[in-house]
Design a protein that fits this description.
Layout lengths: L11 E5 L5 H8 L3 E6 L2 H12 L3 H6 E5 L5 H4 L5 E7 L8 H10 L1 E12 L6 H5 L3 H7 L4 E3 L5 E3 L3 H10 L4 E7 L16 H12 L10 E7 L2
Parallel strand pairs: 1-2, 1-4, 2-3, 4-5
Antiparallel strand pairs: 5-9, 6-7, 8-9
Protein name: Methyltransferase domain-containing protein
Keywords: Methyltransferase, Transferase
GO molecular function, one term: methyltransferase activity
Length: 225
């Protein structure tokens, strides 16, 4: 966002599948007008609770809508947002192309579409690094996997999403790897003393070939023409 828009510009942001609102709140605190969309009642309750603890000015900049990301056209007019986020959602959608196309329609010209997806080209990395050779072998050539919550999800390949974004008029401008080295870290593990160094390493790897190609997740940024 910082690279795409002028410093100080107040953006209209749609966060589809906002979860408990962590990203949406950060953007509202930064001065942007944010709409969070979520269908899970538990997550919505957590987001509303977190928002209620914020100062009035931030509460006024954020609204929460209960709904499915595939129904954005029901709630908003085309071109209503400068930025659309869809992070950690596509992995739960069997046919992602219609959803992504609908998100792109919500963008104003020059708007930014931000997707965070499971990397289908690196599914063998986690079981392989854990010494699960049978699991690693089974992961080659598939886009099916089980996430940390024990749910069966699907992954996306960079080549396929690049083609999808080009086809809907929001071609890929930049992409990054997320969790290059830390995907095998135990859930709930305490942050290391050198956390800032760890984050610096992850960010550098996420921008650098060949490391970003084997990241657990991919962050893709498309721009509406």
């Amino acid at each position: 966002m910082a690279a795409r828009f002028a410093v100080g510009r107040r953006l209209r942001v749609l966060d589809v599948g906002m979860g408990q609102g962590t990203q949406a709140l950060r953007l509202a605190r930064a001065g942007h007008t944010v709409t969070g969309m979520e269908r899970d009642a538990t997550m919505i309750a957590a987001a509303r609770e977190a928002l209620a603890r914020e100062p009035e000015g931030i509460r006024e900049r954020m609204r929460i809508i209960e709904g499915d990301g595939r129904d954005t056209g029901v709630h908003f007019l085309p071109g209503s947002f400068d930025v659309v986020l869809c992070h950690g959602v596509l992995m739960y959608v069997e046919e992602p192309d219609p959803l992504v196309a609908g998100l792109a329609r919500m963008l104003a010209p020059g708007g930014l579409l931000s997707l965070l997806v499971r990397n289908g080209d690196a599914l063998a990395m986690r079981p392989g690094l854990a010494g699960d050779w049978a699991g690693a072998l089974a992961a080659f050539g598939t886009t099916a996997c089980t996430n940390r919550l024990g749910l069966d999800v699907r992954a996306d390949r960079l080549k396929d999403l690049t083609a999808t974004l080009a086809g809907i008029g929001a071609p890929l401008r930049a992409w990054y790897g997320v969790r290059v080295f830390t995907d095998t870290a135990a859930d709930g593990a305490e942050a290391p003393e050198d956390l800032q160094t760890l984050l610096a390493v992850e960010e550098r790897a996420g921008r650098t070939d060949p490391y970003r190609g084997v990241a657990a997740l991919l962050h893709l940024c498309g721009v509406r023409g």
